[in-house]
Specification:
The chain is mainly alpha-helical. Helix content is about 70%, strand content about 5%. The chain has 15 helices and three strands.
Length: about 400
């Protein structure tokens, strides 16, 4: 029987190398996985059948680079493919070789090659991923580390891929719900701007030929049109500069905190933004806890990835409470940020040992709430916007035709 050299890691991440006789690579991989080892590479002693280089896998693959940046879809596909290949018993390095033929991102292609290089040098997968923090977040790194430690890397990657797909689908629903109101608003503003810049000045020229006292409403419209015509460029520059300084300000921690506090205090929409943050928190916690990440470590990861300074500070306080032995549900209740339903479900989850399932149910509930809110907002925004635009255009029309009625009376 042929001999195969192998590289693997145990649950503690310790690198293990050796050689065994087996009928095929699949047999030796299955044997090593039965010992709860994570197989990194298996190479026949003769060299035949050894792994080809990334660029020529069986000479059947074809690199299909389409763009340079790494999109959310690229990462989701990478995670799903890696989970599927590892679940089928393929070694990590072989899996990365195969995935190289599927990636559409030039940057991700280079990163995967770097992962291979670092793993061949002795690093584990999560250590290699940690070298690319702009691509693989702490959620990625810590979940992969958990999978490597437990020997269930394929299962953990499947959960991560499901989380990424669910998160992407939810964001698409939110964006789709907001597209129509945004288009309606821009169309309305465009119509008003056109009337102000083109229509009103035309009427102003007509009125100059008549020696009449213009109504107050007409004077206001003409003055507004004249102001925009003279200072339009300055207004645009001021708006662009204002937006730039605002974005610069909210990129700081204090600026971001004040801005998010303002959003949370908005009437009606404040509850929407609060729920949006809680939805992200429950989604990450369900994935982390289900994947076997300890609760304190899960809270620490969530604190850094919720993208909400206020909620991050609350999670930090909750983490410290849990560290000293306080139940998670009780800590959530003390924060005054989570609603009673979330507190009670977490309490029950802790009692019956189903915390990940409770977080998953909470996440489904919050997603449904947010989708319903957006549907209602869209259905109310359309008639409200139409009424508002109708009133503005009506005021403009009345202001422009009042002098015409006056001229007709004089004539």
């Amino acid at each position: 029987m042929p001999k195969f050299f192998y590289i693997a890691r145990d649950r503690l991440g310790k690198k293990i190398t050796g050689a065994e006789e087996a009928g095929s690579q699949e047999e030796i991989i299955s044997r090593l996985q039965g010992k709860e080892l994570i197989v990194i590479n298996v190479i026949p002693e003769s060299g035949e059948g050894s792994m080809p280089k990334p660029m020529d896998i069986g000479n059947k693959g074809r690199i299909t680079i389409k763009h340079n940046r790494v999109t959310r879809g690229d990462l989701t596909l990478f995670c799903r493919l890696l989970a599927t290949l590892l679940g089928a018993g393929v070694t990590i390095l072989r899996s990365l070789d195969i995935i190289l033929q599927q990636v559409a991102s030039r940057r991700l292609y280079q990163i995967i090659k770097d992962l291979e290089k670092n793993m061949e040098a002795g690093l584990s997968l999560h250590e290699a991923m940690a070298k690319h923090p702009n691509i693989f977040s702490e959620l990625w790194v810590n979940l992969v580390e958990s999978g490597e430690a437990s020997g269930n890397l394929a299962m953990v990657l499947n959960r991560l891929a499901t989380y990424l797909e669910r998160d992407a689908a939810f964001k698409k629903k939110i964006i789709s719900a907001l597209i129509y109101p945004a288009m309606l608003m821009f169309a309305g503003l465009g119509a008003l701007l056109f009337m102000t810049i083109k229509i009103i000045p035309t009427f102003a020229e007509i009125f100059k030929g008549f020696n009449i006292e213009l109504p107050l409403l007409t004077k206001i419209l003409l003055a507004l049109s004249d102001f925009i015509g003279k200072f339009g460029v300055i207004i645009i520059i001021a708006l662009v500069a204002g937006i730039w300084f605002f974005r610069k300000y909210i990129s700081t921690r204090e600026g971001k905190r004040k801005y998010q506090m303002f959003l949370l205090r908005l009437p009606v929409f404040g509850e929407f933004f609060r729920t949006l943050s809680v939805e992200r928190f429950t989604s990450e916690m369900s994935t982390l806890v289900e994947s076997g990440v300890p609760i304190l470590y899960s809270l620490e990861i969530s604190e850094r990835s919720v993208n909400n300074v206020i909620l991050g500070e609350i999670i930090r306080k909750i983490k410290e409470d849990v560290r000293v032995g306080k139940p998670l549900g009780q800590s959530l209740e003390g924060s005054n940020f989570f609603d009673p339903m979330a507190v009670q479900m977490v309490n029950i989850g802790e009692e019956i040992g189903e915390l990940s399932n409770m977080f998953k149910r909470l996440n489904a509930f919050y997603q449904e709430y947010l989708e319903t809110f957006l549907v209602r907002f869209t259905s109310m925004f359309e008639p409200a916007m139409l009424i508002f635009m109708g009133l503005l255009i009506g005021i403009m029309v009345v202001g422009l035709f009042l002098p015409i009625f006056k001229i007709a009376q004089i004539g």
